[in-house]
Predict the structure.
Amino acid sequence: MSHGHVTAPAEHTHLPKRRVLALTDGAVAIAMTLLVLVVDLPDGLRGQALEDALDAVRGQVGTFLLNAVLIALFWRAHHAVLRDAEWNDGSLFSCNVAFLAR
């Protein structure tokens, strides 16, 4: 009788899917946080000074949005690829690390 637990493979090189996904989720969260740090506006701007500062960083905001969407799409595809996996062996883990290094 199964209680929803999956027995680990005998090899110690296998990781449960949840651990690989947790590593990927953390790396994606850090990457998206670092993206927003590039957009820098001085504090206390109002009126025309704020509008001028926003115009100056418009390209940075556009780049941030494009990169954030791309990272989110890669993250979603990654989860879809691993949907049916329960355990990840050393080669799949290496591929995951290569994916994260991009």
User: Anything to note?
Assistant: The CA atoms of residues 75 and 81 lie 10 Å apart. The longest strand covers residues 15-16.
